[in-house]
């Protein structure tokens, strides 16, 4: 018993540490780009997507950590409790918005970097940066409307179940299988749209960079050439982005099944897994962006000089 409690406390500590790292990294991106927005009154399309993505992830991790510790203190509350329903409304909204923002980030990378000469792609390359503010706003609206509909449908179904239960006319039992059969296919249909766009754009970009790297190697460029190294770093960054996005999508689907309760000994390791991409992808964005990277090192040097003094 003591060993189980110690293991739970250990994973709770890891979850807190991961959450603090993710919130700090996402908060750093929001502060740096928000300061530039206030200073110049505008942002580049890439910065618009980055600040939107970081803000949604910041709120997602903050909401998730508050819910997890509240839930651990009130583990007896049923899943159809109104507080739980409101949490899932906000949590799925932020998750949906985050997936859309990641999708637009991959599309922007694709149209800016990929070397594709198809007329449609060239037209998109010219038009897409101007669409970014409207795409971000549309993503927020779509996420809000779809998740509000899911909340209304879910809550109405639970209310019908409670009425039948307390009236003594129980014709069905609300359980996990019922929720999966009714709501998971709808959620999958909605989530698959940004996921499909993301996969197409990121695979086009990876394929373009791979072909470019092969051409440079064929033309006699060494692996130590700065241009070759830059393309290699870009490929590694994109592949890690693809892996984290795919894992986040998979974990979101699994979590929608609600297969694990707070009493389960693997609950906290599962929560660490769910928020893995949200916590560590911001660091990839920081170190792959010149502006954010330079500000990050300046902040570290400032902190170091403060502690030394």
Structure, described:
- Helices cover 85% and strands 0% of the residues.
- It has 309 residues and is mainly α.
- The radius of gyration is 22 Å and the shape is globular.
- The chain starts with a helix and ends with a helix.
- Mean pLDDT is 82; it is low at 167-175.
Given as residue ranges, the uncertain stretches (5+ residues, pLDDT < 50) are 167-175
Q: How far is it from the N-terminal to the C-terminal residue, by CA?
A: 47 Å
Q: Overall 3D geometry?
A: globular
Largest sheet: none
Class by helix and strand content? mainly alpha
Helical fraction equals: over 70%
DSSP strand tally: 0
Mean of pLDDT: 82
Radius of gyration: 22 Å
List keywords for this structure.
single chain; 309 residues; 9 helices
How does the SSE layout of this entry go?
Layout: H1 2-40, H2 45-73, H3 82-113, H4 119-167, H5 176-218, H6 226-256, H7 267-274, H8 276-288, H9 290-308
In short:
The protein is 85% helix and 0% strand.
